[in-house]
């Protein structure tokens, strides 16, 4: 990180504030990582992954402001698109697994009911 020698007081305050925001976001990112690993439900994990993507985007923008590099904002936009697609794909996979599990359970219940009706002689 290249810092200028002649920073004004306001620029020094801003740089310290940006660093503090990056540290706070890093802690929050770690908490979201814990939520993504522990769950308890898949919906919680998907939400945590989505939040992690958003926080990384904010961290890239803050880093862009701190370093004064405009190209990092372009990287942030690309990361936003990739993060959105990742959440959509994970959601589609989860919905497919849930639908398959529901259909299998429904078939087993239907088979058990028809077997029960055969035993009791109800037609």
Write the SSE topology.
Elements: H1 9-38, H2 42-67, H3 71-120
Walkthrough of the structure:
With 123 residues, this protein is mainly α. The protein is 86% helix and 0% strand. The chain contains three helices and no strands. The protein has helices spanning 9-38, 42-67, 71-120.
> Percent of residues in helical segments?
over 70%
Please provide the count of β strands: 0
* Distance, first to last CA: 80 Å
Major beta-sheet overview: none
Number of structurally distinct domains: 1
Oligomer: single chain
The count of helical stretches stands at 3
Radius of gyration from CA coordinates: 25 Å
Low-confidence stretches: none
Report the β-strand fraction as a percent range: under 5%
The general outline is rod-shaped
**Global mean pLDDT:** 88
The secondary-structure element order is: HHH
Structural class assignment? mainly alpha
In short:
The chain is 86% helix and 0% strand.
Features:
3 helices; mainly alpha; 123 residues; 86% helix
